[in-house]
Amino acid sequence: MYLCFKALKMTTKDLRKEINRVIQEVPENFLEDILSYLRNIEKKSKMDIEALSDLKRIFKEDQELLEKLAK
Fold first, then answer.
1. Do residues 1 and 9 lie in contact, with contact meaning Cβ atoms separated by under 8 Å?
2. Could you give the CA distance from residue 18 to residue 21 in angstroms, rounded to a whole number?
3. How would you class 24 by CB atoms within 10 Å of its CB: exposed for 0-12, middle for 13-18, buried for 19 or more?
4. Which of 69, 39, 14 shows the shortest CA–CA distance to 6?
């Protein structure tokens, strides 16, 4: 089933619908684990965004420094 959906190139909206549909079928005893896993992904995503922002700032500062040194 996973391969089938992957091949379809689902939209974000379709992916969210399918995830919600699948979660409705998951046994109750797995729900806390799934929620914990999703929260960890969410935290990591936020950390990645912050890291990229920091990296962008560093590159900008390095570029400014290189331009000053070149003068």
1. no
2. 5
3. exposed
4. 14
Q: How far apart are CA 40 and CA 7, in angstroms?
A: 27
Residue 33 identity (one-letter amino acid): D
Q: Coil, strand or helix: which one is 41? A: helix
Phi, psi of 62 (to 5 degrees): -65, -40
Give tens-digit pLDDT for 8-22: 688 999 999 999 999
Note the pTM of the prediction, 2 decimals. 0.55
Check: CB of residue 54 under 8 Å from CB of residue 47: no
- The overall longest dimension of the chain from CA atoms, in Å, is 66
